[in-house]
Write a structure and sequence with these properties.
alpha/beta; seven-stranded mixed β-sheet; 31 helices; 33 strands
């Protein structure tokens, strides 16, 4: 059977079984058959083939795009004649392909001897921005050779006419409200983790957003208000908290945005989203990628008495009152010029934060990518012509305060800044382009990152990137048919693109399904690095790391750059001493609780950098804090370590990079060897004193300072989703932190130790607890299942070498087998310990899950509704988060322990300890450092 007939059969199956449109074509072999049928005027499939060619072929660097561009070029040159595709229409189709082979075809035509064709091709090229070195080199060479068309194109680029000739955004945008949920809305609601396998199939994945009923309600609102855009709202909460998902924004755009191009199916842009407390920083980045609008509504405010004091309820929580209504179906007007939100003539709220000059540019250009590439293209053209680039884009905001020192994040941004005009160092609030040192792609967003790279016509990783890794951790639990279909293709693409890959497409090294954050933490060998990763928990304990959507990961891989404002910082220091029975995880949870208490319920971490003065805690253990900062709604976190600790952390990272090399994971570019060299260089800088460990200046300015009192942490601390809170907006927030005594024997149905919140020490704690129980009782039995998923294979290997794995294996009823991985997710659990494959496991919720309605006690990070455990009609599933020793003891008992039971169980066990630094961890301010001015 021909590929075309197979495609037709697939279309019928897709329509009958799923009610979906045909998958877009990405294969050159299939499109070649389509083209042959178009050329055959009597072919029975010719009409459908024309439709597929014009409207259903993926652009960018897909092999189908190569075939499409070549055929359109034939038509323009008169080598092929298609009545339905005139040369003019062929140029239009090329203009919508946005890069890669379409640019090559247009350059061929523009630089040809046929002046009539060359002029038309040049006019199209002037609208394009996705040009790479090979393309710009051709243009520059032709210009230097005296080609007038090349000069004309470069002059247009130098003026950025590809941007200036675009229409401005509308002065007024009418929206109709749709309350998508009350309280914080996680991206899990918009793009559920358990549907991760379908994200690359945009139409199919769109079916999982919120619910079918919600999708119908959105459509009904659109039909009722054809001139308005539906605005999805998080009422009394923040929109888009948790995971960094481009798929979440894509789904919102699919249902409530607009089509990016009439010739590319299911790629929509420009959604409008809002929240009472605004949009989470991670989600807002993805909104910018699509040229969308994200509003901070402030429609619920703290109620105050006559004296202006905040009124609180019986729990000490601020009472909120409605400033104005955004009930579903309310028609509002966004005035983009005044930057105000109106209901009719009534002004509701200032929304200027959504319409900064930079954000308006994203909206005008159809997304942030076009602006990023446009700026680079304009700079190139001006340099090639030897002229000054026209001031077209909004001037970067460069804020510098005289006699004010720098926070740690300000130092990192200044160290990595590119294209800066200021002669003095920049402070928070400045808009900066920065070099990205380390990039991570994870396996459930990776297929979308591949699509983004293809769409922006990128074919190889930027040489500016020191190291990049493609993980396999989110699909590690179950090697099922979905994983088998998606993961090998992903690894092959990323391997060719230049990343270190967790699974080798050639099968030459053992699959390493290690948790991506742990690997990125290891390959980050510079405390001044900037890291971008495709997951909200990309929060390293060296450098500063930002969790990002699949698109931001793609642009970081392709360009080695990212653009963002320098964030404000909150300084976190510690006083007192950890009690012997406490684990560092308890300190992390207590930090959240004490911060909220210190600031009257205001989360000062939200949208800011947490600069935690960790001192002597090694990178592995410190990662527990930085990882949790995602749940604190912080933008990122930075660990301030002393010199000795930093050196030890980098030495550990070096040893693990060497293990990756020994396992055969080195790539053609020698990335791992390069990272080891960078590590050696950084260690020498610290040892010699020429460039000590990163520290803020003593005169740095912070948004707030939080002091955590270790003395008052005397019980294990639990992060509770508070699933039965009468106020739905206060459920699943990560803000409810309670001591273990609150639970007083509450049954536990399942325990989970694993994912990115644990390190080798946690595995050792389990082993020590098992030995203690064995010594006391003669053996160990579990009254609730215990699932253990080590974060990395390195840790497993070390535990095996040191003997701790033996005791874990002795009391496990299941041990992972890489030679025969599970082919189906577990749905029922016995009261045994499961030693699972390294990876995310239950924390992801896309493969393994607890039984519906269970009360789960876990070391993971996610409290989202339905993530780790689904609800039943009778009982809500609960995912309570605590320390490793608490989880282990609870599964042995089948319930929460008393404080006395807990203290007895951990007696003599080496818990993760932390001693605050005794000295102030800063440097004396000696004047402004001059930022790098790389162009």
């Amino acid at each position: 059977m021909s590929l075309y007939l197979e495609y037709i059969k697939e279309i019928e199956n897709r329509k009958n079984e799923l009610g979906l449109a045909p998958l877009p074509i990405d294969s050159a072999d299939l499109l070649s058959e389509v083209i042959a049928q178009i050329k055959d005027l009597g072919n029975e499939y010719r009409e459908d083939s024309l439709h597929f060619f014009i409207y259903n072929t993926l652009p960018g660097t897909t092999s189908a795009a190569n075939a499409k561009a070549a055929f359109l070029k034939e038509i323009i040159l008169g080598e092929s004649e298609v009545a339905e595709i005139t040369p003019t229409f062929a140029f239009e189709l090329l203009s919508h392909m946005k890069g890669g082979p379409s640019i090559q075809a247009l350059l061929d035509l523009a630089l040809s001897d046929d002046t009539s064709v060359a002029t038309l091709a040049a006019d199209v090229l002037k609208t394009q921005v996705f040009l790479y070195d090979a393309d710009t080199s051709r243009l520059e060479a032709a210009f230097k050779a005296g080609n007038a068309v090349a000069k004309d194109i470069l002059e247009s680029y130098a003026k950025a006419e590809f941007f200036t000739k675009l229409p401005d955004i509308a002065e007024e945008i009418e929206v109709v409200t749709y309350i998508a949920g009350e309280g914080d809305i996680s991206t899990d609601l918009l793009s559920p983790g358990n549907q991760a396998h379908s994200r690359a199939d945009r139409e199919l994945h769109g079916q999982c957003m919120i619910s079918p009923e919600a999708q119908q309600e959105i459509q009904d609102l659109q039909a009722k208000h054809p001139n308005a855009k539906v605005m999805l709202i998080a009422e009394k909460g923040t929109m888009g908290v948790g995971s960094s998902r481009m798929s979440g924004v894509n789904n919102v755009a699919l249902w409530a945005g607009k089509q990016a191009s009439p010739y590319v199916p299911f790629i929509n842009i420009a959604p409008v989203v809002a929240g009472t407390n605004g949009i989470s920083p991670i989600f807002l980045t993805t909104v910018d990628v699509t040229g969308g609008i994200g509003l901070d509504l402030k429609n619920w405010v703290k109620k105050v008495d006559a004296s202006g004091n905040t009124i609180t309820d019986e729990n000490g929580e601020p009472v909120l009152e409605e400033a104005y209504s955004v009930a579903t179906g309310t028609v509002l007007t966004i005035n983009t010029k005044e930057k105000k939100l109106y209901n009719g003539a009534q002004e509701l709220v200032d929304i200027s934060s959504a319409f900064t000059p930079q954000k308006v540019e994203f909206m005008k250009a159809g997304g942030s990518y076009a602006v990023t590439f446009g700026k680079k293209l304009q700079t190139f053209a001006a340099e090639a012509l030897g002229v000054e680039a026209t001031n077209v884009y909004a001037a970067s905001k460069e804020i510098s305060h005289q006699d004010q020192g720098l926070t740690a994040v300000e130092k990192i941004f200044n160290n990595n800044a590119v294209g800066v005009a200021s002669e003095t160092a920049l402070h928070a609030g400045s808009d900066v382009r920065v070099r990205v040192n380390i990039v991570g792609s994870q396996d459930t967003t990776g297929p979308m990152t591949c699509q983004e790279l293809e769409a922006m016509a990128a074919s190889t990783i930027s040489p500016l990137v020191d190291g990049a890794y493609q993980s396999g951790c989110h699909t590690a639990s179950v090697w099922d048919n979905k994983a088998k279909a998606n993961i090998p293709k992903l690894m092959s693409f990323m391997n060719k693109f230049g990343l270190i890959t967790a699974r080798d497409p050639k099968g030459e090294y053992h699959a390493m399904t290690d948790v991506i954050h742990k690997v990125l933490n290891d390959i980050t060998v510079d405390d001044r690095a900037i890291i971008i990763g495709g997951d909200s928990h990309t929060r390293m304990s060296k450098g500063v790391a930002f969790g990002a959507d699949s698109g931001t990961v793609a642009i970081a891989l392709a360009t080695g750059e990212s653009a963002m404002p320098i964030p404000e910082s909150v300084k976190v220091t510690f006083k007192g001493n950890m009690q012997r029975h406490m684990d560092f995880r308890d300190v992390v949870h207590a930090t959240q609780a004490q911060m909220l208490k210190q600031f009257g319920g205001e989360n000062v971490f939200q949208g800011r950098i947490i600069e935690v003065h960790i001192g002597t805690l090694l990178a592995d253990q410190a990662f527990t804090f930085t990882d949790w900062s995602a749940e604190m709604k912080a933008k990122a976190s930075i660990c301030i370590s002393n010199d000795e600790t930093l050196i030890k952390s980098i030495e550990l990272a070096k040893s693990r990079i060497q293990i990756m090399k020994d396992k055969g994971m080195e790539n053609q570019a020698g990335t791992l060897s390069h990272l080891i060299s960078l590590a050696d260089k950084r260690i020498e800088e610290v040892k010699s004193g020429s460039n000590p460990a990163l520290a803020p200046d003593d005169t740095a300015k912070y948004y707030a300072e939080v002091v955590v009192d270790l003395d008052i942490i005397d019980q294990p601390m639990i992060a509770d989703p508070d699933v039965n809170n009468e106020d739905a907006s206060k459920r699943y927030t990560h803000d409810v932190i309670r001591p273990v005594s609150y639970y007083d024997g509450k049954p536990v149905d399942l325990g989970f130790v694993g994912s990115c919140m644990v390190h080798k020490g946690d595995m050792q704690i389990i082993a020590q607890m098992l030995r203690n129980i064995e010594k006391q009782n003669g053996s160990v039995s579990f009254k609730a299942p215990l699932v253990v998923a080590p974060p990395t294979y390195n840790i497993v290997d070390e535990l095996k070498a040191e003997g701790d794995w033996d005791i874990l294996k002795k009391y496990s009823g299941f041990e992972f087998d890489d030679a025969n991985p599970k082919a189906a997710a577990r749905t029922k659990y016995e009261n045994i310990m499961y030693l699972e494959r390294p990876g995310c496991n239950l924390c992801m919720g896309n493969q393994e899950k607890a039984e519906p309605g269970d009360t789960v006690l876990a070391t993971s990070t996610r409290l989202f509704q339905g993530r780790v455990v689904a609800d039943t009609a009778e009982k809500k599933g609960e995912s309570l988060l605590g320390s490793t020793p608490l989880v282990v003891l609870a599964t042995v008992l089948g319930r929460f322990p008393t404080l006395a039971e807990y203290k007895s169980a951990v007696e003599g066990i080496d818990l993760t300890k932390f001693t605050p630094p005794t000295e102030a961890m800063n440097t004396k301010f000696v004047g402004q450092a001059v930022p790098i001015k790389t162009l």
